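Regression report. Comparing outputs from two consecutive submissions.

Submission 1:
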Amino acid sequence: IYWLYNQAFFFVKICFFNIFFIYLQAKTQVMKKFVFTGLICLLSISSIFSQNLGWEMDEEKSYQIPVGQCSWEEIQQSDFFYLVRENSRNVVLHADATVELAEVLDSKRPTKYEIEAYFGAWDEESLKQLPFFYAFVITMETKYQQPIDFKFIGCNREYDCGGYEEPETLPYFKIYQITEDNQRTIVGKILEKPESSFEEDVLKIIKH
């Protein structure tokens, strides 16, 4: 699948340069507008590829790690998931905080929230916090019908995160507020681990 991904990305780049050459040769404004639209579409596709998932071998851990955005299902299928599963045995959510957070989220509608969860599959603290974070967001969605959008973003030891910005530390949780007109604003961060718990820290950030 990763070979196909690389081949597709290469194909997009070749198409871009060919269309750009045609644009330079176009003699009419109508043709230039048509070709320009094609260039914009290819640039959009290229940006999607540039922030896609790749896997690379971590030499110290001797297993493949994700670099870029990935899903929980992909994490579950990884060689390091057994470490995440071991840490999940300690997951306990604070009921009072989740109930209050659900009420606050409901009161702020249609404003939504999104959390980008940066982690290193080679990093011990990241593997500790992943199951706590996932349990938190899934509980808010399934038990309280208050979904918080989220992304898992894997990073290597050089803090390369597959096209995403370099995090301040790992793990790193960046919380966005998204208004009805789709304006995104960073409203808070959790560095390495919550001060109390994810539900309590996110509640504190969103309330203010």
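Submission 2:
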Amino acid sequence: LFRQRDMINPDRLERMEKLLIIFSEPIRNSLHYERLHKKEQVLEKAGNEREQFIGFVQNINALTSEELIFEMINQEFMRWFKIDVCSVYMAIDGYMRIVSASCRDRRWVDVRNGWLEYLHNNPYPIEVSAGAVSLAYINDKPLYFPDTQLIKHLPMSEIDRGGIDTVVSSVRTFLYVPIRHEGKPIGVLGALTVEEVLELTDDDLSL
């Protein structure tokens, strides 16, 4: 409360305080209801996402073609996390070889094609010094670079540098997550965004 010309009468303030007591309980109840409603919305969203994930797993299990499986994995992760380009790398004959790449929007087709061609010609040796994909695979831990534009001037492996300089110079976020079978890494899921930074929480990375 405020007045522009003179002071508020203390007696009026006292009466206002008494009146506010009448409304305090409804206000408290309203805030409590709002918090409960938000929690209900979170639980409902989590339930819907769980159903979608179960459906995704069932569809994957029904497929027999590796190419279709990789494509479905890419499409689902792009839909969930708003990723622009998603790719799958598998450990084959001592190298991390890219076996699939997809884009969320036709604007990024050239980026997808360039990335796929570059990494077909420059597979990552399975060595720590080879680059980000190999490092995620060897350490069996996700690698997350929220904004590559802030670190692209720093030293990096020859393969990583070549990809950024020649194919995805405007890339924002890079993410590499190990793909495991029976608790051991067998490949890596790679993701990147071209225009916007992808903000991920620890829960997102765990998922």
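Expected: both submissions complete independently.
Actual: both completed, but the second showed a warning that disappeared on reload.
Relevant detail on submission 2: Strands lie at 85-92, 95-103, 124-125, 143-145, 174-181, 184-192.
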